[in-house]
Amino acid sequence: MFVKVCGLRTSADVDAAVSSGADAVGFVFAASPRQVDPATAGALVAVAGATLTVGVFLGQPVDEVRAIAEATGLGAVQLHGAYPKDAFTALADPRWQLIRAVPYSAPDLRVGAYGDDLLIVDAPKAGSGESWDYASVAGLDGQWLLAGGLTPASVASAAATARARGVDVSSGVESSRGVKDHALIADFVAAARAAAVLSSGRQPPGTASKPT
Ligand SMILES: O=C(O)c1ccccc1NCC(=O)[C@H](O)[C@H](O)COP(=O)(O)O
Question: Phi/psi at 28 (nearest 5 deg)?
């Protein structure tokens, strides 16, 4: 089970996620209460060490996404919204993985269809904490993460229902919007690890050969 904790803003948040055993930590560059600036994110990337660092974008131009990824040393770029396949092609780079984040109702849920290394299947509004019908994606193949409204209490059953190989959380490990609760992060990672899922490994194979 691959576990990503998203929307981290402080070095204490990153420490909490890494020490809990998260496989990836996410930093939001989109307009959000969780938004961080590139300088802050660069410092947090250093704190994360070997843990995969993911930059989250929504609607920013490709040139801006690339500039931030280069400046901060991100290990992965996560694109939400209406980025066309050309944007993924333009952003392909051996220095980072490409993550395509889509609502569960998106027309194309094939992993890699846009040249993405990993797919995140999410609620219609990313980062909203809203759950959805996880069973509707239970037939999905490949390397993808389940997101949207997951909590320490729900993650095991949600992952089993969706037959997900990995999970992504933000709202479910917060005490208030944008403020991470470190005990909830630890609870979430432990609950996800305990989930009975199809995967036998922690790292999606599509990410194994890429820099982290
Ligand atoms: O977190 C945000 O505010 C955000 C804003 C714009 C694009 C993406 C955003 N977040 C993405 C995530 O935090 C996760 O990938 C995912 O949506 C999980 O969200 P949640 O339902 O809050 O657990």
Answer: -90, 125
0.95 exceeded by the pTM? Answer: no
Interface pTM, i.e. ipTM: 0.97
Structure tokens at 182: 């470190």
In this predicted model, what pLDDT tens digit does every residue of 47-84 receive, in sequence order?
A: 999 999 999 999 999 999 999 999 999 999 999 998 99
Q: CA 124 to CA 38: how far, in whole Å?
A: 26
Cα(75) to centroid of ligand 1, in Å?
A: 18
Q: Which helix (H) or strand (E) holds 4?
A: strand 2-5
Q: Is 122 a catalytic residue?
A: yes
Q: Which residues line ligand 1 (CB under 6 A)?
A: 6-7, 28, 30, 32, 34, 56, 58, 80, 101, 120, 122-123, 126-129, 147-150, 168-172
- φ/ψ of 178, rounded to 5, equals 90, -5
Fold (topology level) of 2-208: TIM Barrel (3.20.20)
